[in-house]
Amino acid sequence: MPNLTKALDEGMDNFIKASTVVKDSGKHREFKTGAKRDSKTGKGRFDLLQLFTLKDLAGLLEAGAVKYDDRNWETGIPISEYIDSGTRHLVKFQQGLTDENHLIMACWNFMCAYDTIVRIDLGLLERNLDDLPYPLRNVSLHRMISVLGENWVGEKDPSVTCQD
User: Fold this and answer.
1) Among 1, 14, 19, 142, which has the highest number of CB atoms less than 10 A from its own CB?
2) Is 34 exposed, middle or buried (0-12, 13-18, 19+ CB in 10 A)?
């Protein structure tokens, strides 16, 4: 995909330039040894990631790479496909089926849906992959409540749209 190639090339250029930059928040931590590091605040807590889940997701990615090719999903699959498949696997998990690791497959599909949304927003994938019928993700919760009312869950007035 030309946009992806261009983005990767630009990304590599930026990576090389950024490799000599050391960002500083101005807030430092000091350890018992006297060593200092920048603050962790706002950088995510990667030390809290669920390692068993990550291991099983990595196993699923390995199997998928053998079946479909490395990074096949990154070339673009409509978001609705991920939501449909993820929901189907979640239901199968809730039914107690054990013929596949349905919960990990649901996680993978929902992660891919999210990643696809991010890639679309970055211009790395085509907008038409966001084929959801009610794309409310760009509407603030405050706006949804003001348009649909406090008890909007499950009660949609057909005359109300959330486009604005």
Assistant:
1) 1
2) exposed
